[in-house]
Amino acid sequence: MRTLAWHETLELGELIASQAHCLAKFKMVLPQIQDPELRSLYEFSIGALQGNLQELLGFLSSVEPARGGDMMPSITDSFYAGDLLGAAKTAVRNYAIAITETATPELREIFLKQLNAAVRWHEKVFTYMAQRGLYPAYDLGKLLQVDVTLAQNAINM
């Protein structure tokens, strides 16, 4: 297989991080699910995410530059900060999409105001993570290693 392009490497890393985070969260709450049908949905989702991650991780051997050294963020602060970062990213994306579907000017203004607030929220969480070494944005090797570690931890939970 050819070396992955940088833009697809970054998207691959985003998908790995996002799905690994969901997988870990689903595994943590599974013991609390009492309804058998809902529990079955969680188990299905866990299996699907694990399968996705195992496939996606295989593509990291095609990444240039090679992955960085060991970086083992704690499952506590790193995980919880990642949860906030994912929520903020999702909010930014959702507001951006909603704005393109809005015909009512007053509603569009509210969406724009809240989009800007979501961007500031994302910035605050990102800054927190970057300052603590939880999001090495300028080192692709370390960034991918964080994603791999998160995915492996989630799979092994």
Automatic annotation (TrEMBL):
Q: Carries keyword Cytoplasm?
A: no
What is the predominant subcellular site recorded for this chain? Answer: other
Entry's InterPro entries? Ferritin-like (IPR012347), Spore_coat_CotF-like (IPR012851)
Q: Where in the cell is it found?
A: Spore coat
Q: Which UniProt keywords apply?
A: Capsid protein, Sporulation, Virion
Q: Quick one: a GO biological-process term for this protein?
A: sporulation resulting in formation of a cellular spore
Q: Which family does it belong to?
A: Belongs to the CotF family.
Query: Could you tell me what this protein is called?
Result: Spore coat protein
Q: What is the lineage of its organism?
A: Bacteria, Bacillati, Bacillota, Bacilli, Bacillales
